[in-house]
């Protein structure tokens, strides 16, 4: 395993296992049950590493909301196909068991504190919420 630390290997393995369990669970449940919340943050100062670090700090705190089943914090990948959007600074992807759990998250004190403490860092956010199609 050249180029990857043991810590990163373990972390990536855990993420892959978690994603696989969510996908497996989503298939076992009716599709409408899984609620996906994806937020793209556009920093006011996108070249500021300090602002990125501060927002990442806030998202780590936000990940403690108990109704979140799984979370992924990311930055634009180095892909260059014409359909790839890379103009955001940080993405926040989280999964909930259902819409009600996501609504609890929206009103949770940790989420409200996150918005209060960190919203000065971004100029805009795009939010994509999705549920499985009715079959």
TrEMBL record:
Residues 35-130 form the Stress-response A/B barrel domain. PROSITE patterns: S_R_A_B_BARREL (PS51502), TAT (PS51318). It comes from the Bacteria. InterPro entries: Dabb, Dimeric_a/b-barrel, TAT_signal, TAT_signal_bac_arc. Coiled coil: none annotated. This is Dabb family protein. It comes from Emticicia soli.
């Amino acid at each position: 395993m050249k180029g990857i630390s043991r810590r990163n290997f373990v972390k990536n393995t855990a993420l892959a296992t978690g994603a696989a369990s969510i996908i497996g669970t989503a298939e076992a449940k009716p599709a409408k049950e899984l609620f996906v919340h994806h937020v793209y943050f556009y920093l006011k100062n996108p070249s500021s590493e300090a602002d990125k670090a501060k927002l990442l700090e806030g998202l780590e705190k936000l990940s403690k909301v108990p109704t979140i089943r799984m979370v992924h914090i990311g930055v634009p990948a180095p892909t260059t196909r014409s359909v790839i959007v890379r103009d955001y600074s940080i993405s926040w992807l989280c999964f909930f068991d259902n819409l009600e759990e996501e609504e609890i998250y929206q009103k949770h004190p940790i989420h409200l504190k996150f918005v209060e403490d960190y919203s000065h860092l971004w100029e805009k956010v795009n939010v994509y919420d999705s549920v499985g199609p009715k079959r």
